[in-house]
Amino acid sequence: MVAPVYYTVDMVRALPDDGNRYEVVHGELLVTPAPRPWHEELVARLFEALRDYLRREPVGHAFGSRADITWGRYVGVEPDVFVVPLDQARTLDWGQLRDLLLVAEILSPSSARADRFTKRRLYQERRIPVYWVVDGDERLVEVWAPDAELPGVERQRLVWLSAGAARPFTLELRELFRSI
Q: In terms of C-beta density within 10 A (0-12 exposed, 13-18 middle, 19 or more buried), how is residue 79 classed?
C-alpha cells in the first residue's frame, strides 16, 4: 500500500503553471481546470458590485481570483471573490490577508464538491462571517455562517452588512444572473 501524500502550501506553489487551479486544504490537494466563461462572468460581476459598494462603505477591500490565502503549512486557497479589512489589504502582501470578512465561490462542475464541502468547512472553521456559494446554473446562492449546519438559500438578493458599514451591500440576483 502506498502512503498518502499530504500536500503543503510550498508543494502546491511548486506545481507547474498549467492552467489548473491548485489549492490545499488540510493536506488535501484540490485541482480544478480552467473555469467556464459563465463562471468568470459571475466572478467579474460580483467583484465589481462589491468594489463599487466598498468605495461608498470603506469597511474592506475586495479581491477576485488568483489569490494566495494561506492559513498554516497545509492550507492555501484561492477564493473566487473575497473581502478583507482595509489595513490588511493595504499591505499588498498575500501573507497578511488572513481575516476574510466575506468569501464567495462560484460553482463549476469540477469545483462543486470542494466548494460546498471541503472549502465550506474550512471557511466555517476559520470563522469567516459570510460564505456565499454561487450556483449560476440554478440561479441561486447558498449563504453560510460559521455555525450553520445548513445554508440559507437566496433566490432574490444578496445582502451583507459588515461591521462599521452604515448601509448593507445589496445585489439583486436577477442582475447577477442576467444574460450577457
A: buried
Q: Which residues lie closer than 8 Å to 150 by C-beta, 6 or more apart? A: none
Q: Which three cell numbers stand for residue 82?
A: 473575497
What is the grid cell recorded at 115? 466548494
Nearest to residue 159, comparing CAs of 170, 175, 173?
Answer: 170
Is the Cβ–Cβ distance between 88 and 97 less than 8 Å?
yes
CA–CA dist 12, 8 (Å, integer) = 6
Assigned domain for 86 exists: yes
Q: pLDDT tens across 66-75, in order?
A: 899 999 999 9
Alpha carbon distances (Å) from 14 to 18, 31, 107, 147: 12, 14, 26, 34
Q: What is the pLDDT of residues 75-89, one digit of tens each?
A: 999 999 999 999 999
CATH of residue 130's domain is 3.90.1570.10
Give the domain range for residue 118: 35-176
Give start and end residues of each alpha helix (H) in 57-180.
86-89, 112-113, 119-125, 173-176
Burial-class residue 8 by CB neighbours within 10 Å (0-12, 13-18, 19+): middle
C-alpha cell recorded at residue 91: 499591505
Look at the pTM and tell me if it is higher than 0.90: yes
Q: Which of 31-35, 63-67, 112-116 has the highest mean pLDDT?
A: 112-116
Number of domains within the chain: 1
